[in-house]
Amino acid sequence: MRHRSSRTARRTIIGGLSVALLASLGLAAPAQAHASGTARATSPAVAPAAAPAPAPAPKAASGEGPALTPPMGFNNWNSTHCRAEFNEAMVKGIADIFVAKGLKDAGYQYVNLDDCWALPRRDADGKLVPDPARFPNGIKAVADYVHSKGLRLGIYTSAGTKTCDNAGFPGALGHERSDARQFADWGIDYLKYDNCNNQGVDAKQRYRTMRDALKAASETTGRPIVYSICEWGQNKPWEWAADVGQLWRTTGDISDNWGSMLSIAKQDLPLAPYAGPGHWNDPDMLEVGNGGMTDTEYRSHFSLWSIMAAPLLIGTDLRKATPETYEILGNREVIAIDQDPLGKQGVVVSSEGGRWVIARQLADGSRAVALFNETDRPRHIATTAAAVGLDQAPAYRLRDVWRHQDYNTAGAVSATVPAHGTVLYRVSPDRRWASYPPAVELTTGGASLTEAGATAPVDTVLADLGRTPAREVSVRLTGPDGWRIRAVSPTRVASLPTGAKLRTRWRVTAPAGAKPGAYELTARADYRSPTGARATARLASTVHVVVAPPSGTSYASDLPWLSALNGWGPVEKDTSVGESAAGDGRPITLGGTVHAKGLGAHAPSEVTYYTGVRCTAFTAQAGVDDEEGTAGTVAFEVWADGTKVASTDTLTNADPAKTITAAIAGATTVRLVVTDGGDGVTSDHGDWADAAFTCASR
Questions:
Q1: Which entry of 115, 165, 253, 376 is annotated as an active-site residue?
Q2: What integer is the mean pLDDT of 90-115?
């Protein structure tokens, strides 16, 4: 699926047939997922699974066939779309980089072409024709080059009359056997089969037809082709596609923002029972390195995909990738979790308040445990070895696979996880546990908001989680240049026994001239194990320097926000959300009335403002923007600190704008939330028209 304007998307899926005509034929027009996004951090969207029962170390699943572990490779779409830079030189360059940068050795195999590789018309014999401008030597020559590097080549088409790009490249519906044979003759190893322009033909029929065509081509040519079903989860392929393809998309397209990644992860996590060797849930390609998220968020993205046993298809242009991107994509310990031969997808152990524990059983009997924080501030997240399914033992080895460090733990598996961060452990009983330093947890608390020149309290707590004591313990807290930080309680202790804590209070003063924004404080603890080995724990936290809102009534679009999460593109000021690019919105229009001021959002969305206990009221006209025609269902909520103070029923484009008035006296922050109405996020463009705060002076 390709994200584009919702009107084009709907046209593309039904291949030019009107909805009324499809209905008259008894065919339902499939809906396109226009965007994905985040739910509120305080509302877990996935019920935790029961903790796996303790069990002896299982053997890896045996079997023959392709994709016995999740496919790993590259796909160009997220970084190039249909632009001219997608061409033969790029594809060969990616293959070269796989080898030169060690990605091939790390397990990445497939270099996959997405849409726009062909000409818009078949030849006189009905064959597909590679675009001579992009691929002057043809696809077979590219396949030969990729194969010469010890890699594999993938290609793309759609289970419809045309592919998903607006240019309308030929799809495979009705040409399955011919196209499959062409792909095999070219040396293709992987097919991504999309869902656009499907003419309302039954999904199972379309995808099984291509399965049979690929099987026939393989029997004739001896070339097996991994079959990736990309029907966006609309017909629950996890329930029927295990004998059709090797992987199936579970959601709409991912986009390069936190909200989209989070929403897709939440949709994929409950599907763990359906995954296994040769049949994988596919939450879409990786966005790591494309620039729309922080490195912390990209590590969470990579961690979640790995613990979910998801395909790892790089979606960034590796010719431009940073060292940080290569470090994330090349982490072999995280990759080993993804590629574990047992093939079990991780299950949710708990998810209360946006604090997730996800555990995955591994072939050697150990457990991969992800402590994932979806909220916008550091959170303590904890579980135990027993809760993730390990047998009782005197102590356990706790391997931090991002820091590449070993610790011993008495059974606690916990960490204070940065905002939007993930701590990923590998936990196992180990007779050598005493040789590892004790695991510790370093937490920070206190003020996360301060005004320039003000002093705020910050607390650090260091806890020993290990079976052995921590010796010669010291903690310190540092901040940006010009910030004053001093301890007002002890920072050292000679020994910290199992379960004991060192608590330290600090006074943190922002410079008088500090500009509004986020500033990082770093807590560090140094200690020794009983054997004398040195160990260090670090935790970064964020303090926001904020500006008090002005007295009187101010439009929300004229005030700085603390954070803004959106399901599709960025939140826009004084326009609708438009499409995925910043600034591409239209005038906010609700029921034919144009509003000059307001916020344009796309569900699920959350915009947070600092009100500093100075504001008394928030008002807005809320509704679905007219740019979505008859599509879109949303609901609006206003939260004052942790309390919901106003909300609407589910609204559609047919509903008039809803007046919202919220009492927010005494609140430090106010969150403006748009939800999807409970029916998915297609075209959910929600406007906060004329949104305004009424505030008093200090």
A1: 253
A2: 98
**Tokens 């079903």, residue located:** 229
Helices marked H in 14-151 — which ranges?
19-24, 77-80, 88-100, 103-106, 138-148
Sign of CA dihedral 425, 427, 431, 434: positive
Active-site residue, from 194, 376, 464, 625? 194
Q: What is the pLDDT of residue 63?
A: 57
**Mean local confidence (pLDDT), 401-424:** 96
Query: Helices 88-100 and 138-148 meet at what angle, rounded to 10?
Result: 10
Task: Give me the chain's average pLDDT, please.
Answer: 90
pTM assigned to the model: 0.81
Does pLDDT of 5 surpass 50?
no
Of 338, 393, 468, nearest to 69 by C-alpha is: 338
Dihedral Cα 620, 621, 623, 625, nearest 10 deg: -100
DSSP 259-302: HHHHHHHHHHGGGGGG-BTTBEEE-----TTSSSS-HHHHHHHH
Active site annotation includes 253? yes
Nearest to 225 by CA among 193, 259, 268: 193
Does residue 280 contact residue 289 with C-beta atoms inside 8 Å? no
Strand partners, 208: none
| DSSP H helical ranges for 534-596 | none
Please give the span between the terminal C-alpha atoms of the chain, in angstroms, as a whole number.
51
Provide the 8-state DSSP code for 88: H
Summarize pLDDT for 420-442 with one digit per residue, the tens.
Answer: 999 999 999 999 999 999 999 99
DSSP three-state, residue 6: helix
Asked if 268 is an active-site residue, the reply is no
To the nearest whole percent, how much of the chain has pLDDT over 70? Answer: 91
Work out the angle at residue 128's Cα, subtended by the Cα atoms of residues 76 and 9, and round it to the nearest 5 degrees. Answer: 55
**Which conformational region is residue 148 in: left (phi greater than 0), alpha (psi within -120 to 50 degrees), or beta?**
alpha
The residues near 450 (Cβ < 8 Å, ≥ 6 apart) are 456, 508, 510, 543, 544, 545, 546
Token couple for 677: 């109405």
